Amino acid sequence: MPKIVSSSVVSSSDHATKPEDQPKSLHVYYCLCSEFALVIDADLRQLPRRRTDNAIIVSNVRRTYKLTAEAGECVLLKRRDGYEKQFRYHCPRCQLVIAYEMNEHRKLGPYTYVLDGALTENQGHAPANAVIDVQPISSATNTA
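^ STEEP1 domain-containing protein, sequence as received from the core. Prediction below:
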């Protein structure tokens, strides 16, 4: 009778590992049209914000991220202290502006700014700060 040799390997995810050995979790964000837009190693709610427009500041040096947006136009904005040049990124599906940089050479500057309310964690659901409540205009009725 032939000899049968077998071996098996048991793998388990409950091995004791130190927190510093565990990989950092990635956070996924979508455009308001449900298109995948950003994956990053930090929660956007925990990142600092700009005072001028409340945009989320993403460090191009300290953060690992992938922004799947298309480079858009350069816009010159008037600010309180002068003018600001923004090189914008927009959603490839709906063309919504979702981020911008101050440097013409994309991702070579110190920061990328994500616009407040432009991205959501829940695909298909707009965040609360993306929609502004607008009071309906009451139409004037003629009572003649």
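The CA atoms of residues 21 and 31 lie 32 Å apart.
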